Amino acid sequence: MRHWQESNQASTAASAARQTTVLGHCAPGFEAVGEAFRLNLVERGEVGASVAITWRGESVVDLWGGVADPKTGRPWQKDTVCMVWSSTKGAVALCAHMLADRGELDLDAPVARYWPQFAQSGKQDVTVAMLLSHQSGLSALREPIPEFGLCDWEAVTSALAVQRPYWQPGTQHGYHALTFGHLVGEVVRRISGLSLGTFFQREVAAPLGLDFWIGLPEEYEGRVAPIIPPPPPSVEAPLSPFIRLAMSDKESSAHHMLMHSGTFVVPGASDQRAYHAAEIPAANGITNARSLAAMYRPLALDGAFNGVRLVSSAQRDGMGSVVSAGVDAMMQIPTRFALGYVKSMNNQRRVVGERDSILMSEEAFGHTGAGGSLGFADPRAGLSFAYVMNQQASGIGLGARGQALVDAAYESIGYLAPKQGAFWRPA
């Protein structure tokens, strides 16, 4: 096992102020991942981050480095955690699949079977699967909410129960950026009697020994790395189609998602304790790469690891199947979803597509988060992967830093790098 502890002298003043020490371990054969991580810190604008990989059940990469809090100079340490935004959705989906595997939840049943109030406004036939695949038409809150409004579980779920969809459910898909967690989480709560965050902690995080919370206890607040917003739009990184729609159409779900979030998406607002403490399962999971990769490790195997079974192998086999694909009604670019998970998306040939792509194998399933975090399982490869950072990138995809790490991970296990317009395939 190779241990990393390398400091690098950067050539510019800005880079010189950045801590570029890399700590942790890389197994033999995975040195390319360590080098990609180092280059992210030295050359690609990384501030603080962690990356972790398990392969065939073994931890082969666990690296961290950089600065957790640029205002204080606090370094990114082994136990540093960070908000991973929509990478949280993978944890939410896992909870639903666990209930389905136990026979307590029928994914093809109407949501109203478990949540009767949901049947209002023409939603009586909306299925749980439609929630998971972003097809329900509830991609945003139609009405404004107060500051910290997303922290009020009953208020948000009650509003969604009476709200009419933006489109006929099941006819198209549009990313449910901030509503996904309340929608699926309320189904989990109605069945289990536990909040989504409590269910996840009891059934997943505690048995697997994860530093992963949806609703962070105050005692861990000092370990959190604040989020650094992405750079402003430029010629190299113009406004995304999603932002253009949000700015041009005030009746769109894109506009409502941004403006009816109760300040959650305002740069810097998510670092407030109130947002860390609440359960906003679409976006406010707090963890690090080690724990995010460990959550996906059983799913990269047969559904279990070290005596902890999350789902049966049969349930796991269906979790990565594509359910909805095409131009996303919210994001305005092609996206692909399984039941609760993002699939590989190649938008490289689009004008702004390089930053809006996620290149994994076709068998992989997981979830990205705003700015570029990612966790996924690849059952065919026996691989789980996670990347968590504080400096957000532009776009809705993985970004150059995260993709470099994914590329190096696949190359380390003998997969060919993707070509323009192609997905991963075994070498």
Alpha carbon gap, first and last residue: 25 Å
Instruction: Give the overall average pLDDT.
Output: 90
- Tell me, briefly, the overall form: globular
Number of strands: 18
Low-confidence stretches: 5-17, 419-423
What does the radius of gyration come to?
20 Å
Number of helices: 13
In short:
With 427 residues, the chain is of the alpha+beta class. The chain has helices spanning 13-16, 31-43, 89-101, 128-132, 153-162, 180-192, 196-208, 241-248, 253-259, 273-277, 289-300, 313-319, 399-412; strands at 2-6, 22-26, 48-55, 58-69, 74-75, 81-83, 212-213, 224-225, 286-287, 304-305, 308-309, 324-327, 334-337, 365-368, 374-378, 383-389, 415-416, 425-426.
Explain what you see.
The protein is of the alpha+beta class and 427 residues long. It is 29% helix and 17% strand. It has 13 helices and 18 strands. Strands 1, 2, 3, 4, 5, 14, 15 and 16 form an eight-stranded antiparallel β-sheet that branches. The protein has a four-stranded mixed β-sheet with strand order 7-9-6-8. It has a two-stranded antiparallel sheet with strand order 10-11. α2 packs antiparallel against α13, α3 packs parallel to α6 (180-192) and α8 packs across α9. The chain is globular and about 55 Å long.
What is this structure's SSE topology?
Layout: E1 2-6, H1 13-16, E2 22-26, H2 31-43, E3 48-55, E4 58-69, E5 74-75, E6 81-83, H3 89-101, H4 128-132, H5 153-162, H6 180-192, H7 196-208, E7 212-213, E8 224-225, H8 241-248, H9 253-259, H10 273-277, E9 286-287, H11 289-300, E10 304-305, E11 308-309, H12 313-319, E12 324-327, E13 334-337, E14 365-368, E15 374-378, E16 383-389, H13 399-412, E17 415-416, E18 425-426
Parallel strand pairs: 6-8
Antiparallel strand pairs: 1-2, 2-4, 3-4, 3-16, 4-5, 6-9, 7-9, 10-11, 12-13, 14-15, 15-16, 17-18
Helix pairs in contact: 2-13, 3-6, 8-9
